[in-house]
Design a protein that fits this description.
The chain has about 250 residues and is an alpha/beta fold. Helices cover about 50% and strands about 15% of the residues.
Length: about 250
């Protein structure tokens, strides 16, 4: 299933990413970041390779956990996102962070060019981004060579019925949700990640969370949608009308 250029371009815009995260964070029932780090046990002094770091939603908490004795090599395709992350890191911890501009399909070559060697990392971490690889299974297989023998690969992503209520509302007014967006929001984690992990590791742990997001006005929904990878400007007026209609009957 091909990823459209439109989806890729919108996924790489740092300002849009920040707005999507802010919209979800303000309205979610459970603090997603706290939940993630309550499950994955990042130890002080760990060496971590992070893919798709974006503007640092997970990078910053990991830096606090590893401290000055650890190190994170954070990769992203967007130099805009990397610059945004760099500006957020406090001076002492900046020594524990290396930022690398690369995509998921060429990261090994770039790491080697920068002097990193295989089997260097205790943890390889990727949240909400692995599905932007042109071939996620090849990317996952390539990741193994960068992992220490007792290391862990941690992948975080959507699954099940993620975003389904929003998709249904948008499709009522004929907004076309790209097939790859739907796939990555529902089936990707099970179809690609867990099946591969079960075949390649001695132990596989799966943690799932239903994290409800409550929107109580149409402006918040529009803000999220307009900064998403499935926005359709030509349908904006119809969506606003549908949302106004919805909120005449419902409060949330």
């Amino acid at each position: 299933m091909d990823i459209s250029r439109y989806v890729i371009e919108r996924s790489q815009k740092a300002a849009m990413l920040d707005k999507r995260i802010a919209a979800n964070t303000a309205s979610q029932k459970i603090d997603l970041i706290k939940w993630i780090f309550s499950k994955i046990n990042i130890k002080h002094g760990s060496n971590i390779l992070e893919l798709c770091c974006g503007t640092g939603s997970q990078t910053l908490p990991m830096l606090d956990l590893i401290g000055l004795d650890g190190h994170i090599v954070a990769l992203d395709i967007s130099i805009e996102a990397l610059n945004s992350l760099a500006a957020r890191v406090s001076k002492p911890l900046s020594e524990s962070l290396t930022l690398v501009e690369t995509n998921l399909d060429n990261f090994s070559i770039v790491l080697e060019q920068k002097g990193f060697v295989p089997s260097s990392f205790d943890i390889i971490f990727c949240a909400y981004g692995l599905y932007y690889s042109q071939n996620p299974l090849i990317t996952l297989q390539e990741l193994k060579k960068w992992l220490k023998s007792d290391g862990r690969i941690i992948v975080v992503g959507p699954f099940g019925y993620n975003n389904m209520q929003l998709f249904n509302l948008l499709e009522k007014v004929n907004v076309i949700i790209p097939a790859y967006v739907k796939y990555t929001n529902t089936e990707f984690m099970v179809d690609k990640v867990t099946n591969w992990a079960a075949l390649n590791f001695e132990k596989l742990s799966i943690f799932t969370l239903v994290n409800q997001v409550f929107w109580d006005n149409f402006s918040n929904i529009m803000e999220y949608w307009q900064n998403s990878t499935f926005y359709s400007k030509s349908k904006s007026i119809e969506v606003k009308k549908e949302l106004h209609k919805y909120f005449k009957k419902n409060t949330v």
